[in-house]
Amino acid sequence: MRRPFGSGSRSPYPTPQLTPPSSASRAFLVSPKFATDFANALVAQASTSRLLYAMTRDRQLPKFLAKVTEKHSVPVNATFLVAAISLILGLFLTVLPDGLGAIAALVNFGAPTAFLLLNVSVVWWFIVKQKSRRWFVHLIFPVLGFVVLAFVLYNARVSAQIHGVAWLIIGIVVAVVLYKTGRMTNPVPVSAPSETR
């Protein structure tokens, strides 16, 4: 009588022997990841420098960040500043035990927070200010987006929530100071036509 499989009997099928990947295989797997991260870092740095330039143009940041190159119209000082801060933080966080995880959690908390406030601004601007009647576009969809992002933020790491809320409070304080000093300008022209259809 045959014994059931698992009661000390040997497997009737050959067991595959797993071998560690070679150096070429590792390079092949790591290269796309490295190229993607490098491209994303360049895009993030370029967009952040443009954001700093726009804020400087509106008199919300020091004037030296508004310098642009004559040939390509690139905000050179803002670009170098963002690169220096990214390099210093990157090197510093690699020393900490969970530094990279903390900054990744903070970024994952900050981006949904920005989009959450964007949904609030859409409802406030179009429904409250402009009296829009496009309920699906200007009310229902932003509310649904707000609910989804609020759920994501609620389930984020506690450390990311603390740091994210701290940065949000700092941003609100800076916005209040800029508004009180007359440097908080309205990016939307007063004569812009309202969308009420």
TrEMBL record:
Superkingdom as given in the UniProt entry: Bacteria
Subcellular location: Cell membrane
Stored Pfam families: AA_permease_2
Membrane topology note: Multi-pass membrane protein
Membrane as UniProt keyword: yes
Chief localization: membrane
The keyword Membrane appears for this protein: yes
Listed transmembrane segments: 74-96, 102-128, 135-154, 160-179
Location of the region described as Disordered in the Swiss-Prot/TrEMBL record: 1-23
InterPro entries reported for this sequence: AA/rel_permease1 (IPR002293), APC_superfamily (IPR050367)
Keywords on record: Cell membrane, Membrane, Transmembrane, Transmembrane helix
Protein's UniProt name: APC family permease
